[in-house]
Amino acid sequence: xxxxxxxxxxxxxxxxxxxxxxxxxxxxxxxxxxxxxxxxxxxxxxxxxxxxxxxxxxxxxxxxxxxxxxxxxxxxxxxxxxxxxxxxxxxxxxxxxxxxxxxxxxxxxxxxxxxxxxxxxxxxxxxxxxxxxxxxxxxxxxxxxxxxxxxxxxxxxxxxxxxxxxxxxxxxxxxxxxxxxxxxxxxxxxxxxxxxxxxxxxxxxxxxxxxxxxxxxxxxxxxxxxxxxxxxxxxxxxxxxxxxxxxxxxxxxxxxxxxxxxxxxxxxxxxxxxxxxxxxxxxxxxxxxxxxxxxxxxxxxxxxxxxxxxxxxxxxxxxxxxxxxxxxxxxxxxxxxxxxxxxxxxxxxxxxxxxxxxxxxxxxxxxxxxxxxxxxxxxxxxxxxxxxxxxxxxxxxxxxxxxxxxxxxxxxxxxxxxxxxxxxxxxxxxxxxxxxxxxxxxxxxxxxxxxxxxxxxxxxxxxxxxx
Length: 467
Ligand code: GLU
What we know:
A hairpin with a 3-residue loop joins strand 6 and strand 7. The chain contains 20 helices and twelve strands. The protein is mostly helical. Helices cover 47% and strands 11% of the residues. It has helices spanning 17-32, 51-64, 79-91, 102-114, 180-190, 206-215, 246-251, 256-265, 278-284, 299-312, 315-328, 339-346, 353-358, 361-364, 372-378, 383-396, 402-416, 420-432, 440-447, 449-466; strands at 4-7, 36-41, 70-74, 95-98, 138-141, 148-153, 157-162, 170-172, 195-199, 222-226, 229-230, 295-296. It binds glutamic acid. Glutamic acid is lined by residues 8-10, 42, 184, 198, 202.
């Protein structure tokens, strides 16, 4: 059987990491089984859906690299089809017009609550036939009264729900617009979705959707409901726990692979392996190994993973992402060293690309002032002379590469009877503006001859002006 999965977000906000994990699991399952992965935008709630959110979803999917074989489909383009199915269900006696007013339903609810019964529709209009045009009507699905629905959930195992627990849900509102449970069912059927992988907040909808599918004579997909993602306080992960939007993680300096790796491990495991390439994820992913219980989002662990990816990924790849962050700082990376070399120099000390970009500005652009503490500590009496001698020696270096530059510093320290730090640190502050940078010889190669010499002059003048 060929596999078809789908990701079906409602475009009512940014792409949440929970949604991204659902998308990832559906994508992995399709990729593993040589199947098809569909993106379907569930935009029938016209009031809450926005083009901005659609864009955020598409941008998030693209950034994560979750490519889809079909779509994006938009449910708003399928209204005629939904109407057709609603009419079909009415015609075959599986749905009916209901004329109960809001007040009536409210009263029914109050009575049921008072009697400690579960509030549900009482089926008053269930046996009516035809449509009374003069009265406002919704359409309800005629849910079976007897028997049970068994969800053979691929994550949670069998879930049995008695039909008498399910009331006749509304499938078309008074204005004729279809409701969520109807549109999902029609699309899952028409798109021949074989595996519905989604958050377990939808578990209550599943038996209702299965009943509608059965009424339509459609083949039932398999279901896999993923447990929720919680914040550190045990509440469902939301904005108040920090970043939850996929694009916020990009903005905060995460690599997409690090986020994907983090998300795959959130609720799924393969032995005690922590780091997975995308190919390994595809190879090892099994719905059987998805946890049954909710998992807690751990920012520290994500940060650790991000650092691992920054250190161990191809620097060319990291540089491509760093370029965007450098651009965000208003710098054109073409105006300085090759970003690949910057990545190699900075990757050990940068847990995020935001950190790496911020710590690399001086390779591209003059800094305005010296870090106060660093200047105070290193621009001491006599350091101007040390820098002056360095300037003279460095100006003579023929090939501006790490080894000869290193030698100049070592030789000068020795000649002056100073330890290397007494030469390298003032030099570092002079060329970087602060006391933190990669190894000094590498730093100089990245800054380049011209900028290094100019900055040394600037520092010498600065120290002399302070006297
Ligand atoms: N549109 C629904 C949501 O965003 C998902 C529907 C589904 O996966 O069946 O929650």
